[in-house]
Amino acid sequence: MRYEMEELIPVTGKLVEQYTGGESTSVTYEKAEQLMEAVLYCIHEMEQANLHCLSTKEKIPADLAYETGLQYVEEKVKNALDLYNQMLPEFVSYENECIYDTFVKGIPEFFRRYDSRFEPQNTILTLDYPVMKELSGYQGIDKIYEFLRCICAEQRFLNALPGDYVRDVLLKYNRDYHVMIDNLCEIVYAAVLCRILAGKNLSDRALTRDDYDKINQYFKNTESAAVTAYLGAVTKELVKKYYDNDRFLMDYLLRAAEEIAIRLPLYMAHQAGEE
Q1: What global pTM score does this model have?
Q2: Residue-wise burial string across 206-219, b where 16 or more C-beta atoms lie within 10 A, e elsewhere
Q3: How far apart, in whole angstroms, are the C-alpha atoms of residue 90 and residue 44?
Q4: Which pLDDT value is given to residue 275?
Q5: Residue 76 · residue 142 · CB < 8 Å
Q6: Degrees, nearest 5: CA angle 203-186-163
Q7: How many CA atoms lie within 13 A of 156 on its CB side?
Q8: Percent helix, strand and coil across the chain, each rounded to 5?
Q9: Which of 131, 94, 97, 100 is nearest to 259 (CA)?
Q10: How does residue 274 score in pLDDT terms, banded at 50, 70 and 90?
Q11: Residue 115, SS3 per DSSP
């Protein structure tokens, strides 16, 4: 749904009045631009929430589209905060400073500073901990909410495994894993896949040199597309068996399968030297 500038300016003008408390209709160019972006962000939120039915409805007036979108933004803030508060008591950082600082220290700061009316497009945080989903196309609460959903999936995956196993895998990957800026879930997920590819149980902590040779031979004799497909099938079975077929977790892991298929031989070479 496209709105022309003459439709957006009055909506932005009302937002200017709210911002100045009705004392002025004049703000700096930078502030006016920020408020226009706030209007566009909320309208986009409305469009995304109603994407399935927009084609069958008449065009919504810009002011109504903005106010409706603002309600969706505020609802998403509430849902994100609820999700965060549910996760926090059982959150485990595995002593990694990056995920701890981002999740435990950074996220509360976002909720304290976020302005859903006047600057909903501001993500505020840099989100230094890298998740296994591309979030560059998101802004504001959309980005924070997606980030939290990713962390929730990672925590469910990791916390179902013995804590000492997770730490052992991370230590073998990097002796300074406490200060590294890498995705923890991807590293452990790769280790789990190694054990499955070697025909081992997840309870088998160490792989032998023969195990690594067996896996490496598989990679040498199999095309990359087939490897990715096989890892995808293994992942689906893993999530179905151990994680109650959690669809979001499955999609999250599957999204990373192709990248992991590329990196797994290098990961194994590193691990083989440590075992």
Answers
A1: 0.91
A2: ebeeebbeebbeee
A3: 34
A4: 44
A5: yes
A6: 40
A7: 19
A8: 70, 0, 30
A9: 131
A10: very low
A11: coil
